[in-house]
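Deliverable D5.2: sample structural annotation.
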Amino acid sequence: MNCMYWNIKSFAKAFILLAMTLFYGSCKEEARKPMNLAEPITEEQRDLQRVEPPYWWVGMKNSALQLLIKHPDISKKALRITYPGVTVKKIHYADSPNYVFVDLEMDRTTKAGKFNIICSQAGHDDLIYTYELKPRAQAAEDYVGFDSGDVIYLITPDRFANGNPDNDIVDTLKEKTIDRRDDYGRHGGDIEGIINHLDYIADLGLTAVWPCPVLINDMPEASYHGYAITDYYEVDPRFGTLEDYKALSQGLHQRGMKHIMDQVVNHCGVEHWWMQDLPFHDWLNYQEQFVKDGLPVITEHRRTTNQDLYASQVDKNLETGGWFVSDMPDLNQNNPYMATYLIQNSIWWIETLQLNGIRQDTYPYSDKFFLSHWAGAIMNEYPNFSIVGEEWSTNPLLIGYWQDGAKNKDGYKSNLKSTMDFAMQEQIVKGLKQEETNDTGLITIYNALANDFAYAHPNQILIFPDNHDMSRIFTQLEGDVMKTKMALSYMLVLPRVVQLYYGTEILMNDFEKPGDHGLIRTDYPGGWTGDPINAFTGDGLSQDQIDMQSFLKTILNYRKDSKAIHEGKTVHFVPKEGVYLLFRIGTDETVVHLMNTNEQSVDLDLSRFDEIGLKGMSLRDILTGEEVIWKDHLMLKGPGSRLLTSKN
């Protein structure tokens, strides 16, 4: 069925309703009055097939909760819950008789504890499910997100480190092979492997970790990447357990680091458990066609339809309603129960793992009004949290549209703190590969940064040299170590949040098959017993790799404590004769980034930069420790980048 779109008026009304209840839809049954006392629980029972979310918390700002209950013919049974402070407000019946959606309301007096969901039918035994309301582990304000002081380490868990070989193959799942020679097979990396190397990550100077999804992908093949989720509440056993996932968060927090979860609300895997019995006729987009002939309707990936003033309705519908690929069904967030399910799932993971942020996959493919609800509900509950959305566009106008605070012509408010800066990434690579002319080379990079006026909050945009879906930066820059260092050092001083992909620090590449996803996500050397090279210890690395590790480690660890880089004023000067200077100016420090593309030495006249106020000051080279006196001239000896600080 084609995806429906709300007009602005109905969207506004619905947004108010969601903020009050988190629920949509009409009531098919009158609210039942709660009794004063909870019915005693002598033994916990789990008679129902599924109740989701699996548990919840008291003391949430939003006092509403909607339970998805799945069990054969559950709609024929009467449902009863008796617990102080919990009221059954509404019971909604799905198109399938095997689902009900139950609206609960918890008042301020509700205490943590357990109660039974009792389902009765004449002539049948009661079905009982023991449900738990937990106390919150920390205050909502303590879920502090990432910001421009952070550098995030992106990891593909299957390819980073194998901490527990015993979970490599799980016989109950559809994909039962493991083969490190197969770029698209499973290799065995897991959550425990990440935990085992948190000290390495912290020592590099990184401040946060973003693993690609670790929820179960019970697909027949090529499911290692994690983006074809088949159960939104289950960790893939090949990656570990929920307790392992919690331990990862705890390990990060103990080191003063942050945990970012990769989530997917746009689509699921075609083997998701609900695909065998869809709750509603419109649970998926273009569901009727798929059920009828088994052929999905695929999106045309025209993401501009979200902003295009002239876009046809059929193109808009196909962009956000069409399936991303044939084995990833597109979720219909205009179904109110689906929308609530996804919002609650995100909040459940935030609270369960005590997350610091979410990276939301394929952002512009979901219904944009739902995305506003989704992000708004999260930020309302966790005011200091962070969310970054993936808008794979090299057009700053499209990137800026999704950021909260943008003055969009259509009035759209995203509630999204951060978007991903594919535009700046592309221009940095392009500029470093071009010959220096009046209009190319470093001026390309300069012009790209000048586009920051298009963003409501440039310092909350996320910049990166590469990621799990694109060629490694070392490959993009054609194996040029010096240019790779220039790109990295420049990104690390920009007014941005920064993300680095695992292996960038050792010049991992995809030269053999540029752009091939399986090769981009190469195993990290040393993550498996018997690896001949161990990047965690440095054994077997080339001199270039060791040098790059040291280069990044020095900058990253300096960056951690530099308020000038985190929040200072940015001033840059038009590149001239192959030299480009950018300054980050704080209250007690100025950081200077110099880029030089000249093969020969350059005697740089410093008088042009007098407005910065460094004349006569002693600066220190962050990478070498060398003292630099900022007087009339500075000698630049060959191409590369330099980082100077006024703090000695």
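Annotation notes: The chain has a mean pLDDT of 94. The chain is about 25% helix and 20% strand.
The annotation will be released with the project's public dataset once the embargo ends.
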